[in-house]
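Field notebook, page 64. I keep forgetting to write these up properly, so this time I am using the form the group agreed on. The chain and the ligand, zinc ion, are recorded exactly as supplied. Prediction of the bound pose follows.
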Amino acid sequence: MMVDAKQMRCGGCGADGFKLFTADREARIAAECQGCKSISYIEPAPAKLRIEWDDDAQGCITIF
Ligand SMILES: [Zn+2]
């Protein structure tokens, strides 16, 4: 059993049983709800750069 993780359920019918499918190891994973048979896709999203201010910074880098 997973510790410190929240269980996921179907947003439609609330069932917690899924079958997983994929075309190959690099493709997205399709999760089929075993309650209402709806399909959810799980795939990695490209990383994005995020710029934050340091604690003592007067400003952060920006684009002119
Ligand atoms: Zn469902």
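OBSERVATIONS:
- The chain is about 0% helix and 20% strand.
- The mean pLDDT is 88.
FOLLOW-UP: compare against the apo run.
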